[in-house]
């Protein structure tokens, strides 16, 4: 008989999962890059893949408060588990559950389930002949699982037919057929069929079919009668050759409404009742709140007479009156006088006030307002007590009485109410009409009043260990007053400031605090007013196809002081618009921006230092500037989809300054330069590109990269002068080149002089990349690399104006790659849900200015000879990711 004490338990810890795509005749063409990661997500037994997996397993066992050692039971002559509860504290539980990682024990049942799920997944992707098997290798109580996959040939779409016995539904299907996801030649996957089902469901529901669901849509595949396609080589310009894949005819059918009715019912909206301040009561309480009903109607006004030019093909309406003819480009056009109807929204207190030509659009339900003595209030008193105007709410609800039901308008209503930034939790509900009419719905729009005021804040801490050790502190705060004019407007005041303190080389004999202890002081304030609508010419709104348009008016001030070297003040004002087009495209347009930079106050010694060593900065700081400009930016954010959740972010912007004023200058004073209170205006063109890519390797691992390019070109009135320093580019700081302080890099390989580290450029090039990983759900780390620099397009510096120790001009040349600054470092991320705390430590690898001369007399650019941390590193403490 075997001795139970010497029994060996056949438990194995999974060490590795391998997914192998076996060699086959068919070469995967579509989604070959994503397929591996999608298959990996199906695995049910995943061991720890982090670089510290051994440490995490040790932490798990050392802090395990519930252990199950096996002991020999003399009565049953068996080895049985004996559960032991050990005392623990909160720290042990946290280490055990959050930091530690439990070893994954081999389970053959889960392996079989994984194989089955992989096969089903491949079938849904269109690989209906896929083969999946598994192999397990055991070594030293460790299991190595290999999943072997043969996808086989997928079935491709040949033709698509949309069918329905309901003639009205069939007409809708023919109308939207050209937008189908099932294009000929694509894989006939379940994923595409589900997308097609959802697309058709929305198309039908947006045309009045309230009760229609995707369950009415069925798919049938016919591989017998489909076209047979022979294999073809791809050739030089075709990366997806035909390999003889089987084809299928897809039949998409909309089933009848019921066994007794073929036609699906259409619904119209009979009432739209809006509750702008829904009262929330607890479930166990019953309280009826009496409300007043107000009726919002569209009232016809006097027609507006307008002259209209009838182009070729335009028809003259019976009510048009012919005025004259007009010749344009050799062609004769008719000009007619046309009456255009005008409507105005009016709020009425009762249905009896509705006139014959009025169109009822909404019913507004508000709480009854009474005086303190219980007497009814006047209409003027009621209006003053309402926190938002009736027209603002009505304009935000596109659903109107008499319309057919539309799911699109339901979604648009929620979105418009959120844009007002006044309410929270908007809800749109449809119920059977209280009037009892057939195929009639009541639309109930409910929302809760949001917070009137809001506050926000942010901070950053930066510790620099370069030539002069310093500590930088920056903070940002904002205050919002929402719905300030009862039209959804938001008034916002934001203040930001930063101080950079010296930690070494303090002058103990100087009593001036700014000169003794402060490197840089920067403060700015801005007051903004947001309108949740487009305030401008309707032509622009139609031309740009604006959605969720917001108008912004701002007034700001900025003050910058570097020790006692210089002081600069600037004011700016602007009016702009923000809007979206679809869920992924955002636009910003500021048609009028005016920036006035007062003449800086320079300390004489610093002025002389700049004149000799940083000519470009000296030119920028030697005069005041008036910058009338216009800027435009476009942002695209791709959706995060797939297992890898890879996504793109792209932002492009440009700014034009001084063009309109230049035209005025040529008209008013063609022989002299126009000035405003003795200040010249600037002319330049500035553009920037920001491209980011996020690549998710696994659940807790990702790589995020960013490329930034920018250039500013002066011309016209600024051709012979420098670009204002406030518009130039700079690098360094918490969200840029993290191994350097802000404005400590460039231009080019031009060496900065102690006391004049304020490096700016006309051209910017920067690349950042981070490998981010998570230890658990809220603590993570990062390894990053930063590369970049700024350059001048031209320079006023010559060999005669620059001392011998600073011979480089910083101008961009074809050998720019030799002037790139390179830094690296590690970071810690703590995700606290409402914000991310970030700690980064950056180390310089290459300094384009050089660290000094080596023994052989050449300049040392790389931080390897020897590797030095002191004076070549930077510690950053901030909130939020750098990009």
TrEMBL record:
GO terms for cellular component: outer membrane. Residues 483-852 form the Bacterial surface antigen (D15) domain. InterPro entries: Bac_surfAg_D15, D15-like. Transmembrane segments: none annotated. It is found in: Membrane. Gene3D superfamilies: membrane protein fhac: a member of the omp85/tpsb transporter family. Keywords: Cell outer membrane, Membrane, Signal, Transmembrane. Pfam families: Omp85. PANTHER family: SORTING AND ASSEMBLY MACHINERY SAMM50 PROTEIN FAMILY MEMBER, TRANSLOCATION AND ASSEMBLY MODULE SUBUNIT TAMA. This is Surface antigen (D15). It comes from uncultured Aureispira sp.
């Amino acid at each position: 008989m075997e001795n139970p004490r010497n029994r060996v338990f056949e438990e194995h810890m999974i060490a590795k999962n391998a997914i192998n795509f076996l060699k086959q005749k068919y070469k995967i063409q579509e989604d070959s890059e994503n397929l591996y990661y999608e298959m990996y997500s199906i695995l049910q037994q995943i061991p720890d893949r982090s670089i510290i997996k051994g440490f995490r397993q040790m932490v798990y066992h050392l802090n395990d408060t519930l252990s199950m050692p096996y002991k020999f039971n003399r009565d049953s002559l068996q080895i049985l588990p004996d559960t032991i509860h050990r005392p623990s504290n909160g720290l042990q539980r946290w280490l055990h559950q959050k930091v530690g990682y439990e070893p994954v024990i081999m389970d053959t049942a889960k392996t079989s389930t994984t194989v089955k799920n992989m096969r089903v997944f491949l079938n849904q992707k269109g690989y209906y002949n896929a083969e999946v098997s598994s192999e397990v290798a055991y070594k030293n109580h460790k299991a190595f699982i290999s999943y072997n996959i043969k996808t086989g040939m997928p079935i491709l779409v040949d033709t698509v037919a949309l069918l329905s016995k309901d003639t009205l539904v069939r007409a809708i299907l023919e109308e939207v057929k050209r937008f189908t996801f099932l294009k000929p030649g694509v894989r006939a996957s379940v994923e595409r069929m589900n997308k097609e089902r959802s697309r058709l469901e929305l198309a039908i529901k947006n045309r009045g079919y309230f009760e229609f669901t995707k369950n009415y849509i069925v798919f049938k595949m016919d591989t017998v009668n489909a076209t047979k396609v022979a294999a073809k080589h791809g050739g030089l310009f075709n990366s997806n050759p035909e390999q003889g894949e089987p084809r299928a005819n897809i039949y998409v059918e909309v089933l009848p409404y019921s066994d007794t009715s073929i036609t699906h019912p259409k619904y119209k909206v009979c009432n739209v009742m809006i509750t702008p301040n829904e009262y929330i009561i607890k479930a166990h309480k019953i309280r009826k709140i009496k409300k007043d009903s107000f009726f919002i109607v569209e009232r016809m006004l006097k027609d507006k007479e307008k002259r209209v030019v009838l182009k070729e093909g335009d028809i003259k309406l019976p009510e048009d009156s012919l005025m004259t003819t007009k010749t344009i480009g050799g062609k004769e056009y008719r000009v007619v006088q046309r009456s255009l109807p005008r409507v105005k929204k009016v709020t009425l207190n009762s249905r009896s006030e509705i006139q014959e030509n009025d169109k009822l659009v909404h019913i507004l339900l508000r709480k009854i307002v009474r005086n303190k003595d219980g007497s009814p209030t006047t209409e003027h008193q009621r209006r003053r007590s309402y926190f938002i105007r009736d027209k603002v709410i009505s304009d935000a609800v596109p659903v109107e009485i008499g319309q057919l039901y539309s799911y699109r308008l339901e979604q648009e209503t929620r979105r418009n109410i959120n844009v007002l930034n006044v309410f929270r939790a908007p809800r749109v509900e449809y119920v059977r009409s209280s009037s009892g009419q057939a195929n009639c719905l009541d639309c109930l729009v409910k929302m809760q009043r949001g917070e009137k005021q809001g506050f926000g804040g942010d901070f950053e801490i930066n510790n620099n260990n370069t030539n002069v050790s310093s500590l930088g502190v920056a903070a940002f705060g904002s205050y919002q007053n929402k719905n300030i004019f009862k039209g959804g407007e938001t008034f916002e005041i934001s203040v930001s400031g930063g101080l950079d303190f010296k930690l070494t080389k303090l002058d103990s004999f100087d009593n001036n605090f700014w000169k003794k202890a402060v490197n840089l002081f920067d403060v700015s304030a801005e007051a903004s007013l947001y309108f949740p609508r487009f305030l401008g010419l309707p032509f622009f709104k139609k031309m740009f196809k604006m959605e969720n348009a917001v108008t912004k008016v701002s007034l700001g001030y900025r003050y910058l002081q570097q020790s006692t070297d210089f002081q600069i003040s600037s004011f700016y004002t602007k009016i702009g618009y923000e809007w979206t087009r679809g869920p992924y495209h955002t636009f910003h347009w500021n048609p009028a921006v005016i920036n006035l930079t007062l003449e800086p106050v320079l300390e004489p010694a610093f002025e002389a230092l700049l004149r000799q060593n940083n000519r470009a900065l000296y030119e920028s700081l030697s005069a005041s500037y008036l910058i009338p400009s216009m800027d435009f930016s476009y942002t695209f954010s791709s959706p995060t989809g797939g297992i890898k959740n890879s996504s793109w972010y792209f932002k492009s912007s440009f700014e034009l300054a001084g063009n309109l004023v230049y035209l005025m200058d040529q008209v008013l004073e063609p022989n002299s330069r126009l000035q405003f209170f003795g200040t010249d205006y600037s002319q330049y063109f500035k553009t920037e590109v920001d491209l980011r890519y996020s690549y998710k390797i696994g659940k807790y691992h990702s790589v995020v990269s960013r490329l930034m390019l920018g250039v500013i070109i002066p011309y016209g009135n600024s051709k012979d002068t420098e670009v204002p320093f406030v518009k130039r580019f700079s690098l360094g700081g918490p969200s840029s080149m993290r191994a350097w302080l802000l404005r400590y890099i460039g231009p080019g390989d031009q060496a900065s002089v102690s006391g004049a580290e304020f490096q700016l450029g006309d051209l910017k090039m920067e690349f950042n990349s981070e490998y981010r990983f998570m230890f658990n759900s809220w603590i993570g780390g990062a390894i990053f690399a930063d590369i970049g620099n700024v350059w001048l397009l031209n320079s006023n510096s010559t060999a005669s104006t620059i001392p011998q120790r600073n011979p480089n001009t910083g101008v961009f040349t074809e050998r720019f790659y030799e002037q790139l600054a390179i830094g690296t470092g590690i970071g810690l991320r703590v995700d606290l849900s409402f914000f991310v705390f970030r700690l980064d430590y950056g180390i310089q690898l290459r300094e384009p200015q050089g660290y000094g001369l080596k023994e052989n007399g050449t300049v040392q650019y790389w931080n390897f000879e020897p590797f030095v941390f002191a004076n070549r590193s930077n510690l950053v403490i901030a909130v939020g990711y750098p990009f």
